[in-house]
Fold this protein.
Amino acid sequence: MMGIRSSLGRWFTSDEETARERVVILSLSLWFGGFGASRDVVGKTLQINGANSQIIGVMPADFRFPAKDAQFWAPLPPIQTGEIPD
């Protein structure tokens, strides 16, 4: 995304972005604070709002999208014409 490479693991694939896959990329601060900077975090599960998501990567410290305090990123579900997202 935007030419930025993950620090660990990978970014979302186009299939994950369109198929509502439950995958997540962690911020560096969440990786350090929540997972002790364990390099084997990729492939583990993180529960978000009661649903399990597979961790696929960790972003670098200087990644700031959409805000500097974002802790993780997940694909947005596709929106159908005329559908209002929750």
